[in-house]
């Protein structure tokens, strides 16, 4: 590692942080349009109103993201989406600086700086969901701190590493797979037994606290009864009906990692031989090409690629090559597991590049922002450019308010518009905010919604998208009238069953 004084290091850290923040300025203006964002915010908000997570309001992520959104709600995130976007930017800035710090333990200063810069850019690219706040971005800083602390010498740093890894897992369980890199670093240190035991104790302590928190909030039993089996079902479904593609994928990555670990003659090479395959495995456990899945693998890819690209003598070419290689690798992480799964299971793979904007749309994304800040486009027109039908949410809610909604109004959304709950100050008539893909992994969920529809348990039913099932029969089983004047067909019941009296 090239020596450098502390003041120079701080200047580099500040430059990295400022560079990423400047790059992310357009994302701070984004409206609340993203579906996952809507689930996290609505679940957190409904939990703050006394509904129990997983039991009274269901989503399939671990509790960490909802607890973080509860914090953001206290900071005004319900009315000011910039709070969420600011947290996303802060998480990427922290992950970028931590990538630099971890890379400095593995390589020279220039490749470390290059890897951090590339990671910051890729984690901020709208085409790769870098403008959004999802579980990978939320958990990534905690994982990166855990990996950095694993390079320490004492038992306390190892314990803290385990604890922070545990926090990352509360956002996305696949960080447990990435945690093999933390274990690899610990196994290469002195006092191995003490430090590994300390890390395990830190991880266990966080797990215990999470269990206590879920128990106190009344969500622990529902997590084991509903979420855990649904997540297993989701994993099987995403891999085409059985876990054969996953096992093949993991075996290939393990063999590649073992080969490079065996051939490497340096500590940094052995760490990368574990970290990169582990990150790729974690990002591809459920090969659905959802773009945000790749975020947890970006720092590992950036470090590995930059170590190679730094051999190019002309630094601008090295930087451009690194960025291009990591973007291509990120796309490969999304595309290849899905193609492998389809090939093994014998079906046609979905088309690749399932992005919100696409690479051609990057120009339009930044152009939309420039038009807004220059005054060439109104804020409303700027907001309407984004996918997700945010403007339709407003029109839907305005019509429902005309019909007399209140904070005790309950609705059922057939389809996927979770923002309606938090924006409309209404409650769900069932634990399920939407009938999306995760909904169908809960075996009893369709029956609950069908009963609620047939019994007239909701004050309003918003029929956005039928999805996997035609719900018309359940609607026809009770007397409904369409209210009209809404973006989506919207109904209210004329008859309510006595089974809904205690809802």
Question: Could you list some keywords that capture this structure?
Answer:
5 strands
What would you say this structure looks like, in words?
- The chain is mostly helical.
- It folds into 2 domains: 290 residues, no CATH class; 111 residues.
- 61% of the residues lie in helices and 4% in strands.
- Strand 4 and strand 5 form a beta hairpin.
Number of strands: 5
The spatial strand order of the largest sheet comes to 2-1-3-5-4
Helix % is: 55-70%
Number of domains: 2
Largest sheet: 5 strands, mixed
Low-pLDDT stretches? none
Whole-number average pLDDT? 93
Count, helices: 20
Structural class: mainly alpha
Kindly, what is the distance between the CA atoms of the first and last residues, rounded to a whole number of angstroms? 64 Å
Shape: globular
Q: Supply Rg.
A: 24 Å
Strand content: under 5%
**Element pattern in H and E:** HHHHHHHHHHHHHHHHHEHEHEHEE
